Amino acid sequence: KQWYQRRVAITAGTQIRKLGQDGLHHKALPLVIEVLKKNPKDLDALKCKIVCLLKLDKCKEAYHTMTTDKELSKLPMWHERAYCLYRQNKLEEAITELNNAEPSPKVDELLAQIYYKLENYEEAASIYKTLVKNTMDSYTNERETNLAAALASSSAFKAKPVKWVGVRESTYELCFNSACYSLSTGDIDAAQQKLEKSSELCKKEFEDDEAETRSELAPINVMKGLCLQKSGNNKEALELYSTVLKEKAGDSQTLAVAANNIICINKDQNMFDSKKKLKIATTDTVRTKLAASQTNSIDFNSCLLSFYTNQLEQVKKKSLQLKEAGSPLAPLLLATLLVREKKFEDALKALQEGNSPEEVVQLSIAELMKKTGSYCDSADALKKVLSISKRPGAISLMASLTLLGAGPEAAADYLDAAMEELRSSGKYTNEEITGWALQCAKFCLAHDMPEKAAQNLENLLARDSSNIKALALLIRSYSLFDAPRAHEVALRLPDIDIPADIDLEQLEIGVGVTSGRGLRKVIQPEEEKINEANRRFETKEKKRKKKKVPTATLR
């Protein structure tokens, strides 16, 4: 009998092994269960059961089996238990399990995936870098793909500058992640080129499988649409997004991103279509797969849709939910409602209490401060918007606000400091810097500060002594408070080369002298005689016409 049972077990084991090699785990699992019924303590059968459950994506059941079975619970199956917890989104518990495991590449890879899921992209990238450097096997491309994804996500979702480590672009996935990184840094042209290359590699890899090609091309096409959308080509972007949604080829995350981007393009138009797209982007299954910044964006757009359709109570309710969830854009929605009611000070208070680092919030704070008359505070708020605070247009705006709030002297001091930053940044040409410096000097002259204008112009001429415009302005500045110095500076004006064939006296006579209404021509003596004769003739004619003719008197 024992020999027979052993023989049956060997036969069943052979069948299970063969089914496992063929990937038919759904057929292998019933055979494993039959073996365990006859011998519940068979460790090999128990391990086979765990493998089958994991392959069939029954992680909850697999974890329950590993933790409740007396034989399995004694085994150091830290990695398997951690993987089950990871798949159930119990990420902190999964890390605890892995901390007990022996260090190995597979443990590090799972740990990196968990950190990626927790949106700790820097830690995930660090682990992947070590794995790529120290591990050489058939999974090298996958590890490099994950490393590129971690770097791109850190740059895109966390807005943290990361160093691109020069990952290869030999596969369509590596090209795709490299394009995502380029787009997150604002290099749209490079991103588009890499996406085109990614498309070509993808089509080549799946040329024999049309369905798989469409599925893998879906996220690439959505990224192409995003590049077009950021470039202002909304019509072409909309066509790409609509095609992806129509084919339903991509995964749920890809479809959700495409739907959300269409909502952004629609804005306050085509509300019915936007509501349909919102349903695609807000299902419970897709939310767990998106990054926090992506879900915040979708929830924010949902609030905007309610605002556009005048569902103000819904807006208030959703705004509070976003605030509780920690969305940095929630205060902006609450402030929008208050602005609609003309409660500008309350709206400003709501934004300030939110402490949101989002630039759009800081711009809104600056606008509300300007509306309430706090011009200097408005300028200070604009300085926090780092993406524009160093641009010439923003500097001009902040100078105007400072002028309104603190007067011309404070505005001039701000302009001096800003000009020094522009000069030291190295981003602008000498011609541009000189032009702005001249404008600053004119600003000082226009606001009765000739001494400051002269100082700025002296500094400019110290760098470019041949600038005639600066020299002329300097003479004008000194003439307002130091005439002798103005005369000295005037001597620095270059001599004018006058051609020998020009008669200066004749030129001065031709130009004439200035009258109240403009230039009056100086008349030559010969012309004066002719004109005098004409005037006398005209006078005689007028007298002759005025002479009375006597009328006849009838007697």
Which terms summarize this structure?
single chain; 555 residues; mainly alpha; two-stranded antiparallel sheet; 31 helices; disordered C terminus
Beta-strand segment tally: 2
H/I helix tally: 31
Mind describing the biggest β-sheet? Answer: 2 strands, antiparallel
Low-pLDDT residue intervals, each spanning 5 or more residues: 1-5, 513-523, 545-555
| Large-scale geometry | elongated
Report the portion of residues in β strands: under 5%
Oligomer: single chain
Structural class: mainly alpha
The chain-level mean pLDDT equals 83
Radius of gyration: 40 Å
Strand order in space, largest sheet: 1-2
End-to-end distance, in Å?
178 Å
Please bin the fraction of helical residues: over 70%
Polypeptide structure, described:
With 555 residues, this protein is mostly helical. Helices cover 74% and strands 1% of the residues. It has 31 helices and two strands. It has helices spanning 2-21, 25-38, 43-55, 59-68, 70-73, 78-87, 91-99, 105-117, 121-134, 140-157, 172-184, 188-205, 210-230, 234-247, 252-266, 271-281, 284-287, 292-308, 312-324, 330-340, 344-354, 359-371, 375-383, 392-406, 408-425, 430-446, 450-463, 468-479, 483-490, 504-511, 525-546; strands spanning 513-515, 518-520. Strands 1-2 form a two-stranded antiparallel sheet. β1 and β2 form a beta hairpin. α6 (78-87) packs antiparallel against α7, α16 (271-281) runs antiparallel to α18 (292-308) and α26 runs antiparallel to α27. Residues 1-5, 513-523 and 545-555 have low confidence and may be disordered.
